[in-house]
Amino acid sequence: MERRLGIGRRINFFRRLHGLTQKELGALLDFSEKSCDVRIAQYESGDRIPKEEMLRKLAAVFKISPQALQVPELGSWVQRMHIFFAMEDMYGAKLRKIDEDYYLRIEEEDNDELVTGVRNAVLQEWLDKRQALEQGKISKEAYDEWRYNYPQKGEYNCVTFRRDDIMEGAYVPAGYMELLKLKKEVQQEQEKQTKKVELTELEQRYKAAEALIAKELAALREEIEKLKEKV
Asked: How far apart are CA 167 and CA 170, in angstroms?
């Protein structure tokens, strides 16, 4: 039932966003004039759930990804909390409070550099788009077009995925493997440079100690020669 309500709310949202009546939307979907508004009303109320083919048709009318319609019901905080709890169970999400604000860490750190990189890439893409909107670099329409068509219009060419047998789409960001390779090369070079710095420092310390010892030996030899003269 929650899935029906979730899809119904999204259909209602996009219909209103496009300024369509239920009858007009039904007509665009080729329903008969007699039943077109009734069918849309059934979808929006959750009394009826559209099949996959109908979801694709609805998405085509709204010019969005079908996935944008398949969002679970989030009408109450109880439902939202259980979404968060599921993220905690599946991905190790953690809640934190910083100052007076609450933040949800999407998932725990992963030893798999590729998994962590993909997660960071998709979140960074969202952040980039959101900041561009807030800074006036893109319009709300452009931002919504990106969101509602994700990942088809994703500049990073990737989507999030579950790390189990049922993959939601393990698309790796375009060129990300090259970035990982470059990162490792940079790290290796930094390690080489660090070793060079350490070696240079040790050599300088040795030379300083050598000079100090030579000075002390010279002073000691001078004292010895003075004692010889007295004897």
From this structure: 6
